[in-house]
Each structure stands twice: as C-alpha cells, then as structure tokens.
What we know:
47% helix
Amino acid sequence: MPEGEGLPEGAEEFVASLEEYTPxxxxxxxxxxxxxxGFSEPDTKLSRLISLAAQKFVSDIAEEANWYTAQRQQIxxxxxxxxxxxxxxxxxxxxxxxxxxxxKEYGVxxxxxxxxxxxxxxxxxxxGPSN
Length: 131
C-alpha cells in the first residue's frame, strides 16, 4: 500500500506539523515510557503524537473533575457548614472523590489506600494509621 493511502484528509499535514510542535509532556519522558513498553527507537513524530494524546486525556479528566467539583460545591450553605467548609470561601477545592468520579468514566478506579485517614480516632484531624 503506498504511503498515505487510506488516511483521512489532512492527516499527512498533521503528522508533518508534529515536527515543529513542542508538546507539554516532554519528548524525553514520552520516549522513556515508549522504550520501557517495547519500542526500540521511538520516532519523534510518534512520540509527539502520543504526547498530544496523553495531554488531551489529562485535559479531559481535569475538565471532568472540575465539573464534579463545581457540582459538589453547589450544595447549600448549611450543608457546607456542616461539612466543615468556610461558607465565605469561594475557592474551588479538587478532592480525590472528584478526580475518582471523573476518571471512572474512562474505566479507571481510584480508591484511597487502607492506611489513609481523614480523621484521627476520636474525631480529630490528621491521624496516622490506627493499629
């Protein structure tokens, strides 16, 4: 099959433009993981295409997590106060639960380790593992 045959329109120009593209995820990092997964000499264009796909994946997850954060923070003032939030504070707080909900849509499950503690035994914050 001749090179470029069967590709969508504009695909060749897109792949060629990857030569000048500087990805957010450095080439060295992407090439390191490509080499670890079995690629002997990853091509720069391939590396940058994978970097771009990974950047899009992370961006989509961050956007979803931000949406979950906004939904969670729209709860009533009393509920926020009961949960220990300062109702005057308008900053967004991304929690592990927001991230877990966002990434679950992509088939990835995040769970807190068994040694993670939000509260100390007896109700105080900052506890370590309980034995």
